[in-house]
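Quick question, first post here. What does this chain look like in 3D?
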Amino acid sequence: MKIGYMYGFEAYPPTAGNHRHAFELIQGFTRAGHKVRVVNDATMLGVKNFITHELDAFLADIDILYLRLDARDLYQSLFARAILRCTVPIVWEVNAPANETLAYSWLGGRVDLKAESLSRSIRRWMHATRKYPSIWREEYVRKKLSKKTAAHICVTSALRSYAQLSLKSKNAILIPNGGSPLTLEFISENSIANPKFTVLYTGSAIYPWQGLPYINETAKLADRQKLDIEFLFCVRQTTDYLPKGPNIRILEGLPHSEILRHICRADVCLALYPDYPWSKWGLHNSPMKLFEYFSCGAATITSNLGQMKELFSDHRVTLLTSNTPEDILAQIIRLQTNPELKSTLGTNAYGLVMEDMNWAEVTRKTLEVFDAVTS
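> Answer (accepted):
Ran it through. Tokens below.
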């Protein structure tokens, strides 16, 4: 099968969750014997790349079109032109509703959890209000173009509800993200104890939905209580979202292999996310960093929201938190004082990724959808 995959960015080497998703799927498709065609990504390995003015040639050279849908507009985009001109089955990879753009209105600039002034709240409301017309237009366009789509693959049940109710999908399939389990040898070699009990965050520090205000306040609380805990941030770039303090260490711009080593060495890894109260779909993310932590056999703490609450409430693979600094710190101390629990969480999380929630399974399930719609 010749798979045409449009995702709208250069994905190799992967430096973010969306890059990782595209990269892992493409490698899985090619390992399964399929040929992959992409548009405007000369970096990707093992594919045939077409540029913008070669769109018709791209569409003529594929058996199925797989298109990533995130918060960016379809309206007047190359993606919309591809959908309208396409004569083969189309599958959408649904990663966000259009209203994800409101995250910057409601979450942007929040570096702590303190109550805002009335004037700042009004400014946020006005910022969001200006976005609503373009969001409504985008959802109208999506609904129209969705009629040409044979299936919608959704990474969370919140996004499946969005596809069914807003995009009117009759074939919305849930396929969560996965991880790539490291070898036990690599994990063992890099499980070197840090001088202090280390709580790690890894990812981008520029997006307001990464939960950094929760970690900031938790680190301040730990410092006030004079706890022997270090908070380590492995980030791509420093921003105002990152905290400052005697118990904070920041490592910037590390290669991915070095980040994996720090995950293996950490005592606890954090994946915290705020809820999305402006959206009727709630928190719709499928956090890639959490699966990466699992792949390293790390003990983790994550928010008791969305997919995390849905998938992991009944498994001893992570601790769920209410997102208050007091509860987050209590969960950290729980793991600090209970090495057996910390070991159990890491072992169970690694087993979950090995057996079920891995990229090989994600690829297999995705190809099953392709086979179904092309047959």
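The chain has a mean pLDDT of 94.
Residues 96 and 134 are 15 Å apart (CA to CA).
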